Amino acid sequence: PEFFEEKLNTICDDFLPKRSRALRKICLSCDEMDIVDALNAAVRCYPGVAFGSYPFFKDTSIVKTIITVEAEAEDQVLSAVDELLERIDERHVLRVDSDHRISPETV
Question: What pLDDT digit, counting tens, does each position of 55-71 carry?
Fold first, then answer.
């Protein structure tokens, strides 16, 4: 899976047109199932925002889940991220950034 992920990121970077969409990535130290209610609530509050949830099962990674938040406008993304972070125990939030790669090693 890691090899495929690396190649997919390369293909996307090199061959897909760049989109001018705002993006934030939230790296969490908890399992996806621990935040599903918070994520569903944020999705309901922000129908114009795309959310993605990526669980990781490697025992060696501190990152257990990565949530992506994407929309046309930066202010939509920031508001949605704030809403989601209010619903998640802050001890589980490792980092919030705009890196588009979905990998636990980016933390």
Answer: 887 776 788 999 999 99
Tokens of 92: 């589980």
Distances (CA, A) of 94 to 1, 40, 62, 72: 23, 20, 9, 25
**C-alpha to C-alpha distance for 33 and 70, rounded to whole angstroms:** 21
Query: Which range scores top for mean pLDDT: 16-20, 58-62, 82-86?
Result: 82-86
pLDDT tens, residue by residue, 23-33? 999 999 999 99
Q: Spell out where 1-107 has E strands.
A: 22-28, 50-55, 65-71, 93-97
Half-sphere exposure of 68 (CA within 13 A, CB side): 17
